[in-house]
Design brief:
Belongs to the eukaryotic ribosomal protein eS6 family. This protein has 92 residues and is mainly β. The chain has 1 helix and 2 strands, in the order ββα. The protein has a domain of 47 residues. Strands 1-2 form a two-stranded antiparallel sheet. The N and C termini lie far apart (69 Å). The model has no long low-confidence stretch (mean pLDDT 89).
């Protein structure tokens, strides 16, 4: 999907240095490539998104559940901070 191409299908564009979707091999080289427009429709099978701001409602199955951390801390100071009962006590 190329930003700025206002269609939902594929378009053949002449791309050069500085465009996304193309890296020229020689100086001044241009190439006609087929790119998809930036408008979303039902023909897309996968769409990657990033949530940038929390809204008023939760998104079911995505923001309404919390996933517990799988791994614990490695650094000893963070282990002591997470589990204060494991701190060493000197028996004199």
């Amino acid at each position: 999907m190329k930003q700025g191409v206002l269609t939902h299908g594929r378009v053949r564009l002449l791309l050069s240095q500085g465009h996304s979707c193309y890296r020229p091999r020689r100086t001044g080289e241009r190439k006609r490539k087929s790119v998809r427009g930036c408008i979303v429709d039902a023909n897309l099978s996968v769409l990657n998104l990033v949530i940038i701001k929390k809204g008023e409602k939760d998104i079911p199955g995505l923001t309404d559940t919390t996933v517990p951390r799988r791994l614990g801390p490695k650094r000893s100071s963070r282990i002591h901070k997470a589990f204060p009962s494991l701190q060493r006590t000197d028996h004199a």
